[in-house]
Design a protein that fits this description.
Layout (H helix, E strand, L loop, with lengths): L1 E4 L10 E4 L10 E9 L2 H8 L15 E9 L11 E5 L8 E4 L4 E3 L6 H5 L2 H14 L7 E4 L5 H13 L2 E6 L2 H9 L4 E4 L5 H8 L4 E6 L5 H7 L1 E9 L13 H7 L2 E4 L7 H21 L6 E6 L3 H9 L6 E5 L1
Parallel strand pairs: 8-9, 8-11, 9-10, 11-12, 12-13, 14-15
Antiparallel strand pairs: 1-2, 3-4, 3-6, 3-15, 4-5, 5-7
Length: 325
């Protein structure tokens, strides 16, 4: 099998394709011949040496894949050889084959190419988890989504539209905001030119029911300012650094607010299986009907793997970067 190799702390242009022995199938798993995989910030952090894989998981980069089932363990009945699938792996996705828990796979929607399916799992499951599993957002409620033009941001905005939730987004350019609008965002805020809390105080003076934030930093108290009572702020990354500004306890208590941090990679197998089952039941058919779609920024060949990490680290993306073998 082939895989993308790296030395911890290396630059993007040091990513190389190497070969190793093929995996032996184990009980409870299926082997997937990987046709395409998605690129995520967790991959760049792991390459830099800042985000090790969970204990016992593959050291190979990659959290989401799409491909064809090539082998099925005798105790697995949910998939068969030849099935087109996509799903989550806790590591090992940057390879031509992976061993996967079948509960972490879904059938590729009818008519969807592998490269699109490869970019679906992480962003939509993360957005689904934040909006529905954690924040319990409901139709007609309001959500503020930071990083609106990111893969997760665009997925979250689409899910809001799909469920009848009103959404406002922040992004750094008019081009990115236009993409957010195409995905269903109602209020568009250029954070380089506008203070999002001032804008929302005017547009939605009663506040928002939840904030989805991957920035952190000085956004914490400003998020609380625009939050309704009993609202939730869900953090899933820290692009502005690991420390936030001084928490205004009066705001927190007065709003009866919840500040929640979440990850997906290091969740238990059972948690991921439940999340995938719920997502598949609620959303998977919408990809066949066109009500939901995968926002692909660029589809690369494996020869250009280094470009994907460089672009992600430069925040030079609008949607997903995906790679095919």
């Amino acid at each position: 099998m082939q895989y993308v190799d790296f030395e911890k702390g290396c630059r993007p242009d040091a990513l190389v394709v190497n070969e190793r022995e093929s995996y032996s199938l184990s009980q409870g798993k299926v082997k997937v011949d990987v046709k395409a995989f998605g690129i995520n910030r967790a991959d760049t952090l792991q390459r830099q040496g800042n985000y090790p894989p969970p204990q016992g998981e593959s050291e190979i980069l990659g959290l989401e894949v799409a491909g064809v089932v090539s082998e099925v363990a005798s105790d697995v009945s949910t998939f068969k050889e030849g099935d087109k699938v996509f799903g989550l792996v806790a590591g090992g996705g940057y390879a031509t084959e992976v061993l996967v828990n079948p509960a972490h796979l879904m059938p590729v929607p009818e008519g969807m190419p592998f490269f699109e399916a490869a970019g679906l799992t992480e962003v939509f499951l993360t957005a689904f988890q934040c909006l529905r599993t954690i924040a319990h957002i409901k139709p007609a409620q309001r959500a503020l989504i930071h990083g609106g033009a990111s893969g997760v941001g665009l997925a979250a905005t689409q899910l809001c539209r799909y469920w009848g939730v009103h959404s406002a987004v922040t992004a750094s350019s008019e081009e990115k905001l236009s993409l957010c609008e195409q995905n269903g965002a109602e209020h568009l805020i250029n954070y380089k030119q506008q203070a999002f809390d001032d804008v929302l105080k005017m547009e939605w003076p009663e506040g928002v029911d939840m904030v989805l934030d991957m920035v952190g930093g000085d956004y914490l108290n400003r998020n609380l300012k625009v939050l309704k009572q009993d609202g939730k702020v869900v953090y899933l990354a820290m692009l502005a650094g690991r420390y936030a500004d001084n928490l205004d306890m009066a705001l927190l208590l007065g709003k009866r607010a919840s500040i929640i941090g979440t990850t997906l990679r290091n969740r238990s197998d059972d948690y991921k299986a439940d999340l995938i089952r719920d997502f598949a039941a609620v959303c998977l058919s919408a990809f066949e009907s066109g009500e939901l779609k995968v926002n692909i920024d660029t589809h690369y060949h494996i020869d250009d793997i280094s470009k994907t990490h460089a672009r992600l680290e430069n925040n030079d993306t609008q949607g997903k970067l995906v790679v095919s073998w």
